[in-house]
From TrEMBL:
Top-level taxon: Bacteria
Protein name per the record: N-acetyltransferase domain-containing protein
Lineage start: Bacteria, Pseudomonadati, Pseudomonadota, Gammaproteobacteria, Cellvibrionales
UniProt xrefs under CDD domains: NAT_SF
MF term (GO), any: N-acetyltransferase activity
Alphabetized Gene3D superfamilies for the sequence: 3.40.630.30
Length: 210
């Protein structure tokens, strides 16, 4: 680990900073959201809609660097709540349809428990470019997983699309791939909205036993 940051659990005083950071990072560098034209404000609105869950889970994490700036954020919630919330707000219905289909594949194959308090869902992980390859992403995940263990969660689940995040979760942290969807083949409303996504081939759902 080479990062010089303090990692803290997200609370009411830090959740707005955490959401702003995630929205900015995903708007600037996430080709999947870019492919369907999601703006920073639309991403922020989606995150703000779910902020109560991200705080109440007591598993979301924020990394603050030596200059008192946000270096990275992980937002987490309970998988049971994630599966039952309203996903179809107009701006992001394509992405959430994709996520719903991916989770449906997982649920049909593995029949997981959908009770609250069983599976933690890692919803977002965003590290500032100047802190890439510093170990902050891994540290945020490990901190969130420890919080989940402290609350007696049994599993962790994440949907990841970039090769870097898949290498972190599956290659380094030991998550097991359980479901996947190839972006270029995904259809929504008779079209292929992600056909121009070139930096990654598929979105992967993976699980870790805690």
């Amino acid at each position: 680990m080479t990062y010089d940051c303090q990692i803290q659990t997200v609370d009411d005083s830090s959740v707005t900073l955490a959401i702003d950071h995630c929205a900015q990072m995903f708007a600037a560098a996430e080709p999947v959201t870019d492919a369907i034209g999601l703006t920073c404000e639309q991403i922020r609105a989606t995150l703000a809609y779910d902020q109560r869950r991200f705080v109440s889970s007591r598993m979301s994490q924020v990394a603050i660097d030596a200059n008192n700036k946000v270096a990275g954020v992980l937002l987490a919630d309970d998988y049971a709540e994630h599966c039952t919330r309203d996903l179809y707000r107009p701006a992001n219905k394509v992405i959430f349809s994709l996520l719903q289909d991916l989770n449906h594949i997982y649920q049909m194959r593995f029949r997981p428990s959908l009770k609250e308090g069983v599976t933690v869902h890692i919803a977002y992980l965003a590290v500032a470019p100047e802190h890439h390859r510093s170990g902050i992403g891994e540290a945020l995940v490990r901190a969130a997983l420890q919080c989940a263990r402290n609350q007696a969660y049994q599993k962790a689940l994440v949907e990841s699309s970039s090769l870097g995040s898949q290498a972190l979760f599956i290659g380094k942290l030991g998550f097991t791939e359980c479901a996947q969807i190839v972006y270029r083949n995904y259809r929504f409303g008779g079209q292929r909205p992600f056909v121009n996504v070139s930096c990654t081939n598929e979105i992967v759902l993976s699980i870790l036993k805690l």
